[in-house]
Amino acid sequence: MDKLSPEQRHKNMVAIRAKDTKPEIIVRKGLWSRGFRYRLNHKRLPGRPDIVLRKYRTCIFVNGCFWHGHNVDMELVENSECCKIPKSNRDFWVAKIRRNKERDNEKQRELAKMGWHCITVWECELKPSKREETLDSLAFTLNHIWLQDHSLKNVAYAAIEEENDSMLIAAEE
User: CB within 8 A of 145, min separation 6: which ones?
Assistant: First the structure.
């Protein structure tokens, strides 16, 4: 049984934003303070990632645990420690969270086919006790991606034909 009237519930649901959420702002400030520069909600990329770092060819999705079903087993439909599925209208919420998870996976596969790296940061990982560890880990991952993409590859060069012994070397007379 819902404790709120339908009008109150509607007002609460309308107030939930899709961008500039508190977890997203925490990640943005953490990245900026560590020297990373980014774009927000890139319209041309599938799924409109929350944060796009073009230099690193990386998209960061900052997901709310409830809306994206963090650690929820959708086959058994069991709650996780950070995502509690409401008891009222349960079928609706299970279907909605399942669709959100499927859409997230599909968009990340599309981005991967385009050559983009995808990172998901969960709301529960940004609690004050874990925040710095999460942001440091994110910075480490981005630096690792950049080094991996820009390192010299072991390229096998064509073998050089042996020089003739009759040719003089610069130091010889």
Answer: 56, 57, 58, 117
Q: Which residue in this structure is represented by tokens 């499927």? A: 102
- Dmax over CA atoms of the chain, in Å, equals 100
Between CA 100 and CA 77 the distance in angstroms is 14
Instruction: Tell me phi and psi for residue 39, to 5 degrees.
Output: -120, 155
What's the pLDDT tens digit per position in 15-59? Answer: 777 777 899 999 999 999 999 999 998 888 998 999 999 999 999
Distance CA 30, CA 79 (A): 30
Residue 100: beta bridge partners? none
- The answer for residues whose C-beta is within 8 angstroms of residue 149's C-beta and 6 or more apart is 56, 57
